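Q: Hi! First time doing this. I have a protein sequence and I read that you can turn it into a structure. Is that right? Here it is:
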Amino acid sequence: MKALLGLVIVFGSVGGGYVLSHGHLLALWQPFELIIIGGAAAGAFVLANPMPVVKTAMAGIPGVFKASPYNKALYMDLLSLLYEVFTKARKEGLMAIEGDIEGPEESELFAKYPKIKGDHHVLEFICDYLRMVVSGGISPFELDNLMTLELDTHEKEAHAPAHALQQVADALPGFGIVAAVLGIVITMGMLGDPTTDSAAIGGHVAAALVGTFLGILLAYGLVSPLSQAIGQRAEEQGQVLECIKACILAQQQGYNPQVAVEFGRKTMAGELRPSFGELEEHLRGERS
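A: Yes, that's right. Below is the predicted 3D structure, encoded as structure tokens:
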């Protein structure tokens, strides 16, 4: 909703100001200019990036217009899940949670938290590292290093679509100039035709200028903000994984479940972080 509101403000302000200045909106409708600019940008995007990045970027754009799944409710579910897993392991032994982490889809414990089960990356991260804890033979220091390596790799992969779209945004003004130059070429060709009136020439010049306008507007009013929004969504997912990392490392270092999830709470952004009492009350509700 926020992204849609932003686009309405951007295009509403530009279009509204233009109309209030006695401009005609139909003069801005130049489909051939859009074909040149949009087609060149799309082709350069595909040429410059691996197909997995292209597909991920395209799949990520609709998500920008939806509410972020990485909200306070998801974090509360995440901390509750980890608390229950740690408590079960503490009371019954690490082997007691082996069935849950080997088959989270069938686990009654994970079934209580559909938001976590529905996020493939989060679920896989939890199960992979809990599996290592259960198997033993890895120290907290080694586990920390391994998690850090994975998070660094994840950050690069998750931000690749945003970087790719930003490159498109940087190129769009140039493609707008290409469309404008082609429009001027057409106009210059018309000057040699004695049957061409000045109104037609003026229309072609205006169409050429619209190409420059569209390239700049699409770059800074649409594609660049979309790139930043996709990057922010990747950052939010990375913060969730950092929270999981802090909790598992605390558990591996011997802290009790309540304290272990407190380590995770401290990694959360201020607007999402529950208070100590709020989390304790939530966990108490899960226990009852």
